Amino acid sequence: MRAVIQRVQHAKVEVEHTTTGQIKEGFLVLLGVAETDTEDDALYIANKIAGLRIFEDEEKKMNRSITDISGSILLVSQFTLFGDARKGRRPSFIRAAGKEIAVPLLEKVKKQLIENGIHVEEGIFGAHMEVSLLNDGPVTILLDSERTF
Predict the structure, then answer these.
(1) pTM for this one?
(2) Catalytic residue among 19, 36, 80, 140
(3) Which domain holds residue 131?
(4) What CATH number has the domain bearing residue 88?
(5) Is-catalytic flag, 80?
(6) Which of 120, 106, 127 is CA-nearest to residue 21?
């Protein structure tokens, strides 16, 4: 499972001109699920996101987590995080999970984030989404449940 976490002042996702999720201060999380991912991967990613200390304290050091600031998360599925563009010019998405694997794991991540006391909004799996955000910093963190980076 891979996640791109962006610290945002606000973010929203729209599907067919309808807002499906919108947050103020917090994280925009783009989340990709691999066909080999399990519930352990979902729990690892969710707990890592919940514990990330990338909000500034009074000394301007990144010492606060999303729960410390009572922030929210906009969770958006993105299979293209498993795009492999090492060969040729068109990426291969063969490692990306299909709906039957990805949706339950995305729900597991969402449930775990909520259990950590975080308000979560989301996009719609498989839909063409328009995501807008105001990146704060900018601060962007990459996570991979296989710990390859």
Answers:
(1) 0.96
(2) 80
(3) 2-140
(4) 3.50.80.10
(5) yes
(6) 120
